Amino acid sequence: MFVYITGTSVVAENFATSATPNTMVDQVFIKPGTRTIGIQSLLVGGKGGGLTTLSSIAYRLRKWTTTSAAGGTAVTPTPKDIGAQACKATAGAASAGVTVGTGGPSLVGGCVSSASGPGGWVATNEDSMPKLEGADNKSIDLFSACPTASLNFEANIEHVE
Known about the structure:
single chain, six-stranded antiparallel β-sheet, mainly beta, 0% helix
C-alpha cells in the first residue's frame, strides 16, 4: 500500500467552520480511482488567535453511499514516499463547502479539537479504516461543525491505496 496526504492548506491557509453555529459543512472529499482506498488518519488543529472564550471544533468523516461529493478546488493527494506511484484517488476542497453527494452520509470517523489546539483520529489497524472500493462513485468527506461561528482550522487526511 502507498500512503497519501490531502491537506486543506493546499487550498487556503485557513478553512473556517460555518457562519451559522452548530451547522455542518462538507469541506473536503476523497473519491477512489481504480484502487481501493482506506482513510488512515485525520490530523486537525484549531487556528484561533486571541480568543476570549473556550470553544471546540468537531471534525466528522462521513461516507456518501450513492454518489460522491464533487466540486471545490481540485487537490492532488501527495505521496508520503518519494518512490510511490501517482495517487489514483481524486480529491477536492473548499472552505465554503463542496457539492454534497447523495445517500447517507454515514459517519465513519472523527475527532474534536479546541478552537486553538490540536486533535486527531487514527485508525487502530487496517481493518478499522473506513474504505471505498476502487472505481466506486462514492466519497469519504470531511465535515466540520462548531457551536461558535466561523472558527479557523487546518486538517490533513492520510489515505492508503
